[in-house]
Design goal:
This protein is mainly α and about 350 residues long. It contains 19 helices and four strands. Strands 1-2-3-4 form a four-stranded antiparallel β-sheet. About 5% of the residues have low confidence.
Length: about 350
């Protein structure tokens, strides 16, 4: 039987032609093929490629080895991982973090020192697959609220931005996880310094990121953290800015375009109606008129028809349960839309 000892805690053994990992002489798990399929000597951590996870699609299923070759490849990769201070970029996330957690529990002081640091460092990189995994497997639960507040205030870590950016893949797989992610932001926003950073991040994302990001911000009503001054700043932007382009793309693109969104068109439209209504109440009709005036004539007609349809098919419960009074909002927006057409 082949056996290779990495350090006092990690041993690899060949059992029935499979490579097994042992921690303190207790079987941990069977190594997965993806660890082999992206060899560390192919990895250059620079620019866009920062980890094995970034290369996952490129190298997956690219290498075939017999059991002995697989064993020594696993040994080589885990030896390199250990010698590089358990750098989780060097092996796949689904092995790196559980293994690092188990080593921490086993009393490995190096692993204990690196465990939380690796979680935050990888989350800050912004890889949506890695961040989804960390949230899904509850690795952020290892941090206290005060820890997360300090992390959120470190601008270099981009914690708030990545917490928002991961909403789209989270919702796609499990909307409960997305709700939990929003709940983390809500708790952190109780700290005024974090709230200020959150507001700044939301404005930047609305103006510079994709329409998918805008949909998540509007759908989860994260704009509620913006005060009147923030909203005025947002709507004072030139109509040629990304903010307006994304709004119109979401409102007026149909058919195939919506296949790229995770939420259905009716839901998306209803949440944007609420957003416009909130803007109207907070800073007045001038900003909404500016938005409407940026629409083409056909877009104005389309928007009015969709508003009418929205109001017609909304259930009584929908209208009653909305604390803002959605029916009045829609009628107000319809009148503004007509005013915009008259003044266009």
């Amino acid at each position: 039987m082949l056996e290779y000892r990495i350090n006092d805690f990690i041993t690899l053994k060949m059992e029935y032609k499979e490579t097994e990992i042992y921690i303190n002489d207790k079987k941990f798990s069977q190594c997965k093929g993806l660890l082999l399929n992206i060899p560390t000597n192919e990895l250059k951590i620079q620019n866009e490629v920062r980890s094995i996870d970034d290369l996952e699609r490129e190298f997956s299923d690219s290498f075939e080895m017999d059991p002995d070759e697989e064993f020594w490849a696993h040994c080589s990769n885990l030896q390199a991982w250990y010698e590089n201070d358990y750098d989780t970029r060097l092996i796949h996330r689904t092995l790196a973090f559980p293994l690092l957690k188990k080593l921490t529990e086993a009393g490995d002081t190096k692993a204990s020192h690196m465990f939380k640091e690796e979680i935050i460092n990888r989350f800050s990189e912004g890889n949506s697959m890695v961040n989804f995994y960390l949230i899904n497997e509850e690795y952020l639960e290892f941090f206290s609220e005060s820890d997360l507040e300090l992390i959120a205030l470190d601008h270099e870590l981009n914690f708030i931005k990545n917490q928002i950016m991961v909403l789209e893949p989270l919702f796609r797989e499990n909307d409960y996880l997305a709700d939990e992610s929003v709940a983390i932001l809500e708790r952190l926003a109780q700290n005024n310094e974090v709230k200020t950073q959150l507001k700044k991040t939301i404005i930047e994302l609305l103006d510079f990121e994709s329409d998918k990001t805008m949909i998540e911000i509007i759908s989860y009503e994260l704009y509620k953290y913006l005060d009147s001054r923030d909203l005025r700043k947002l709507f004072k932007l030139s109509p040629n800015k990304r903010f307006y382009d994304n709004l119109k793309s979401i409102l007026f693109e149909t058919g195939r375009k919506y296949n790229f969104y995770n939420k259905n068109p009716s839901y998306i439209f209803s949440m944007f109606v609420l957003f416009f209504a909130c803007v109207y109440i907070r800073i007045g009709k001038k900003s909404i008129l500016k938005l409407f005036n940026s629409f083409e004539e056909a877009e104005k007609i389309s928007f009015k028809l969709r508003l009418n349809n929205f109001l017609e098919f909304a259930t009584p419960d929908d209208l009653r349960e909305n604390p803002i009074g959605i029916e009045g909002f829609v009628n107000t927006i319809l009148s503004l839309n007509q005013e915009s057409q008259d003044n266009f």
